[in-house]
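Structure ticket #2291
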Amino acid sequence: MFRCRFLAALGLFLTVNAVFAQTPNSTPAAAPTETTAQEKMEDPQVGDHWTYEFRDDISGDVKSIITNTVTDLTDSQIGIRLTWAGNSNSNSQTFDRSWNLINYGVHRYSPNDGTGIQAPLAVGKTWSVKSTDINSTSGFIAKHSGTSKVTAQESVTTPAGTFDTLKIETSYQIQNTNNVTDKAQVVMQTWYAPAIDHWVKRSFTMRYHGRVTANNTVELVDYGRR
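Resolution: structure written out below.
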């Protein structure tokens, strides 16, 4: 079924499709800090890590706590290991240097999934999202197309601290190439903090044939360098 395949194929912000694939036990997040968390992390380094709380906004439940750790770097790519609190499983993803997802599991995104940033960021800047998602095992192919826009500068507080962010709103359509009537619409909001070169919060809603099938938020609870 188109919807089931696409829940696994979305590839949104490093963690969401990983949560759909597994549901390990979660760990409560720490209380918010009172100071502004702005440790400089301009360039990725092996050992950098960001831990996120994944919440289902429909039920209100915290589904997982997921840590993303940089494992390897090249001039053009960043390798990430995903680990889940309370679970021994791990997985990997590859991003370009602008945090666009290139591959995750059996999914390959050409040229990438389009959900990263486009530096330099400034309020009002817009860019196109165009991508082809190829399942290397089943051969299933989907097209992503839409736009991203920097809509505001906002101060955002999460359990990891308070961050100066640029808010990016992304809206795109996912279409089954074998059946053009099969479509899903995704609206995503990203709060990207330049000081740590990552998003501190992401929320997205997906609709399939007009019906909401996912409404989730991912929020930073910890980060740092090795």
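Closing remark: The two ends are 42 Å apart (CA to CA).
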